[in-house]
Amino acid sequence: MFYYGYPVSSTTGLPMEKLKDFTDKVFPLLDERSCTLYKSERRTRYTLNGTFALGASGCARRARPEGCWMNKIDLDVASRHWAVNPLAGPVVLVTTVNAHGWVNIAPKSWVSFVSGNPFRLVLGCHREHHTAINLFANGECVLNLPSDDTVQKVWNAQTPLPPAPDEPQARGFATIPAMKVKPPRLVECRAHMECLMENVLTFGDELAFILKVTAASVDESVFDADDPMVDLRPMFYVSPSTFGVIERGRRV
Questions:
Q1: 120 exposure class (CB count in 10 Å sphere: 0-12, 13-18, 19+)
Q2: Phi (first) and psi of residue 88, to 5 degrees
Q3: In sequence order, what are the beta bridge partners of 197?
Q4: How far is 52 from 227, CA to CA, in rounded Å?
Q5: How many CB atoms lie within 10 A of CB 106?
Q6: How many whole angstroms separate alpha carbon 114 and alpha carbon 116?
Q7: Which pLDDT tens digit goes with each residue over 7-47?
Q8: Pairing outcome for strands 103-108 and 92-97
Q9: Within a 10 A sphere around the Cβ of 241, how many other Cβ atoms?
Q10: What's the whole-model pTM score?
Q11: Is the peptide bond before 65 cis (omega within 30 degrees of 0)?
Q12: Could you tell me which residues are beta bridge partners of residue 236?
């Protein structure tokens, strides 16, 4: 196995002192008693006192707890989209209604719980989106959690449609009434959270809605499953053309 063109053991890793020649060739400033930092324009490399361990890909990974080489790539915090999203957001389909009672469906991924008892969520949205306009109009929405078998419908829902009384049908979704709010639940989704707007924070054209969960429901198959994630299969937004899926739960 090779790392930066030099041979490295692919078994259990070697003590740092046995790799001194290797490290000196790559980082002359190596200090075995501390962490040495080498920084270029976009790459930050840390050397931690400890041992090397190679992952299955052949890249050196940290052999906890001692440590190893760690290569860091700087991300542009001024960019709207990162090449690698380190905090993938859960994909939800938000249903709202306008003044005519017409339903709007919009996929969102800037969403997270912020408190419990009662549950509250934060939902990020652009102020010009129909979701924001409808929330300001009546303060109600439903967060529907789609599974990966609906991914094409979810991605297509990113394309805005003019307000119409049949938008759910036009997008291929069926609806059922919600329990506490006017916007409906989407049949194709397996979990739903009905919310009331409590507050909104403004960041230029971006808004953060604070939503209080007033009712929640899941499919019976999800509720009865030994591992709900097997049936729920929630999606996470990674990039404009990439998503991730939780296929099963793991217990600690």
A1: middle
A2: -60, 140
A3: 211
A4: 37
A5: 19
A6: 7
A7: 333 433 444 444 445 445 444 443 444 444 444 455 555 44
A8: antiparallel
A9: 6
A10: 0.73
A11: yes
A12: 90, 244
